[in-house]
Design a protein that fits this description.
3 helices; 4-stranded antiparallel sheet; alpha+beta
């Protein structure tokens, strides 16, 4: 009887520890997924003839519309063909490419200009990709 109680206690303790560890594990997986997708997007941009001048990966709630977690990948790109890059980046997530001079109009959750130097000259674009995180209900989205 003592042995059964001890095994039950150990099992319940392990279940409790696993449940407590899941948010931390989920956050780590979400961040790693964002960086893996960013590396893939960088390869697409370079393969299309673009030059990456800066990048930023943000994991959290990017839209402010509820409790969910996403990865937002941002790149400052110098290119002559922004539409081709946008089409290629749609393989990574929901992609949008726009002139760098319009950067301040597109962000309200955090200020991208604090994290990256964004040139205002022609030929520079912001490539923004939003993609769902593997653990979408993670604490990072609250």
């Amino acid at each position: 009887m003592k042995k059964a109680a001890r095994i039950t206690g150990i099992v319940l303790g392990c279940v409790f520890l696993i449940i407590c560890a899941l948010p931390i594990i989920g956050a780590a997986v979400n961040i790693a997924d964002g960086h893996i997708r960013a590396d893939r997007a960088k390869r697409h941009i370079v393969d299309m003839g673009g030059e990456i001048c800066g990048s930023c990966v943000y994991t959290g709630n990017t839209s402010g519309t509820g409790n969910h977690t996403e990865n937002q990948l941002l790149f400052v790109v110098r290119t002559n063909g922004p539409r081709g890059i946008e089409k290629e980046l749609s393989n990574v997530g929901s992609a949008y490419v726009y002139p760098a001079s319009e950067a301040e109009e597109h962000f309200y959750m955090f200020d991208i200009t604090e994290k990256m130097d964004i040139p205002a000259e022609d030929g520079y674009y912001i490539a923004e990709i939003i993609c769902p995180a593997p653990f979408g209900d993670n604490i990072m989205g609250h």
